[in-house]
Amino acid sequence: MDEDLWAVVPAGGAGTRLWPLSRAHAPKFLHDLGGTGRTLLQATYDRLEPLVGDRLLVVTGAVHQDAVRGQLPELPAEHVVAEPSPRDSMAAIGLAAALVERRDPDAVIGSFAADHVIADPDAFRACVTEAAAVARTGVLVTIGIDPDRPSTGFGYIRLAERLGDFPTAHAVASFVEKPDLDRATAYVASGEYRWNAGMFVARASVLLDLLAEEQPDLAAGVRAIAAEPDRIDEIWPGLTKIAIDHAVAEPAAAAGRVAVVPGSFGWEDIGDFEALRDLLAAAGDAKGLQVLGDAADVVAVDASGLVVPMSGRTVAVLGLDDVVVVDTGDALLVTTTERAQDVKAVVEALKANGRADLA
Amino acid sequence: MDEDLWAVVPAGGAGTRLWPLSRAHAPKFLHDLGGTGRTLLQATYDRLEPLVGDRLLVVTGAVHQDAVRGQLPELPAEHVVAEPSPRDSMAAIGLAAALVERRDPDAVIGSFAADHVIADPDAFRACVTEAAAVARTGVLVTIGIDPDRPSTGFGYIRLAERLGDFPTAHAVASFVEKPDLDRATAYVASGEYRWNAGMFVARASVLLDLLAEEQPDLAAGVRAIAAEPDRIDEIWPGLTKIAIDHAVAEPAAAAGRVAVVPGSFGWEDIGDFEALRDLLAAAGDAKGLQVLGDAADVVAVDASGLVVPMSGRTVAVLGLDDVVVVDTGDALLVTTTERAQDVKAVVEALKANGRADLA
User: For residues A60 and A66, what is the distance between their CA atoms, to the nearest angstrom?
Assistant: First the structure.
């Protein structure tokens, strides 16, 4: 455990494509999507705790702070930082960086989303440890996931030269946007690209100084809040809404100030029910129909796909392949893995029908 | 209204292929499958009442008698006859015939199932009125439905010569079993066949005398119960389980003692969810997705088929054609119209899994 290392866990995003499991009032990080008995947030904590102990800040929406504290009773309550409103990832991570910087300007922070799934936590921690070592040299470090398929759903990181002082780190040539399938296939075949999982490691002051070069008002804003927390409601609404990638990572990469530690630890961003089905299928030995919940609540005849029985009722599925059935106390979704990415359309239809309460 | 005409309504059968809407404890005749505000049983009563007033006997399982009386408060309580156990249609109708015979041996009874749907009750009553007139000549009369498609799901009635004394009646050449598609197509093309909807009209004594020729013990048994109702628990369990078609109609047809009144009044036997979808699609103007229940509870995006929202929850369907979603308080079914006839397999799986309570 390196005493200068802090973890920052931005816990935001509604996970609309996982409706009705994930809701605005209960987003996906609060749910046990892996069927492991721990929610994604708790699993994120479990994965980081051996590295950072309670030097971990969760930044979440004000409406979720009680739920977050409830799920992480081990964490000091003041380590759950409430955003008055969503202002994208740079403001959230920047505020956490500023809070850490006031305690220890040389501290290293690593930012890791609350809703990712990682199969091999030991390998993950080894990557973070190397990334922290690289970060202590004064650069911004990202962790790049070794791609196992030509995904068009992620941005990519293009590697530059190896950094010889470290076991696996490279300089970053550039961050590239989500590619089409042809380009993604070429990226993966080249061996020169990694997935951008949005994991960044840097000294708190390095991150904020990089931010100050690109977005001086934003850097000054979060530092002002860290200095005078009571001013958050005054300052926060004026902060620029921008993702950390655009605010800091891309400009710094262009300036040759970003390194990447490649990692292969079974990372998944469970963005929709097809990904959830794939996760459960890979983890379990059940064929055909995957169940997240009590399998005794499901009766399947000639069926495959995913059933999430959360209402206590019996769910029977007959004669449907790649179906998705998500059964909650007040809402039921029936779709297919193929259409899983379009679940947002259902949530929009609900809102249009005056049922925003269910969204 | 002909004062000698009685209606007999056998109300039995679990309607397993309509699970979880229809249950052993709440079979389909107790449900409003047409979305009309009246259950199938109530609609059957409504259809017959102009012909028979309260000269109507419902024969149902002992466990359903309270529900039947509750749905038909207009009917004298003693007109709901409880079977101690299911003994097929001949025992049920035979007992009702014997009860009527004791009041009026010359009375004509017409037997009509409690769970059929009829679009044109006036045309139905005109058929029954002609059938009763034919029955008064001392024959067994059936009503044969003009087929609108080569169904393989029904038995057929082959017409013989016209009976000139009546507007539309024919003699019956024979009853034929459910045909394969080629034979059904030929039957319909010939114009000589009608569907057997299990509707029989006869003088009570004629029906029982025909029965006495074929099944003397059964005829004697139901007559003995009618004479001494307290003996039902003693006699009933020994009665032969046989359908009225096999017990009386087929032998009588072979002997030239059955007539048929052809009818065209939009008859449907809602045997499964595909038939229910078709019924709702024909009745309503909604395209694509049919809803039996409150359409405000359903959100559909690129979906067709049938949704039955009965739990009060919101049901969202995305990207599925010809899907069937039946949402009740304790059980949910997701299948397709194509597999609707196999719903029995789900109920059998439930029983095998120790969930007979849901069946």
Answer: 10
B348 Cβ contact partners less than 8 Å away, ≥ 6 residues apart: none
Write out chain B residues lying below 8 Å of A317, CB-based: 333-335
Cα B127 from chain centroid (whole Å):
16
B256-280 confidence digits (pLDDT tens)? 999 999 999 999 988 899 999 998 9
Q: Is B344 left (phi over 0), alpha (psi -120 to 50) or beta?
A: alpha
Contacts of A329 in chain B (CB under 8 A): 313
Residue B234 clears pLDDT 90, i.e. is over it: yes
Task: Work out the minimum CA distance from A286 to partner chain B, whole angstroms.
Answer: 18
Of A323, A342, A355, the CB nearest to B314: A355
Q: Give which of A307, A318, A322, A348 to mutate to test B binding, by max B Cβ within 10 Å.
A: A318
**Three-state DSSP string of A207-251:** HHHHHHHHCHHHHHHHHHHHHCHHHHHHHHHHCCCCCHHHHHHHH
Structure tokens at A215: 């977005």
Longest dimension (CA), chain B: 61
Closest CA to A90 of A261, A249, A202, A270: A249
Tell me the β-bridge partners of B306.
B290, B324
State in Å, rounded, how far the first CA of chain A is from the last one: 41
The percent of residues above 90 in pLDDT, for chain B, comes to 90
b/e per residue B258-283 (b: at least 16 CB within 10 A): bbbbbbbbbbbbbbbbbbbbebbbee
pTM given for the model = 0.86
CA distance linking residue A340 with residue A214, whole number of Å = 37
**pLDDT for residue B1 is more than 70:** no
Is residue B17 within 8 Å of residue B272, measured between CB atoms?
Answer: yes
Residue A341, token pair as written in the block: 């990415």
Q: Can you list the domains of chain B with their CATH numbers?
A: 5-269 (3.90.550.10), 286-358 (no CATH)
- pLDDT tens for A119-157 read 999 999 999 999 999 999 999 999 999 999 999 989 999
| Residue A259: both structure tokens together | 């390194």
ipTM: 0.85
Pairing of strands B289-291, B193-203: unpaired
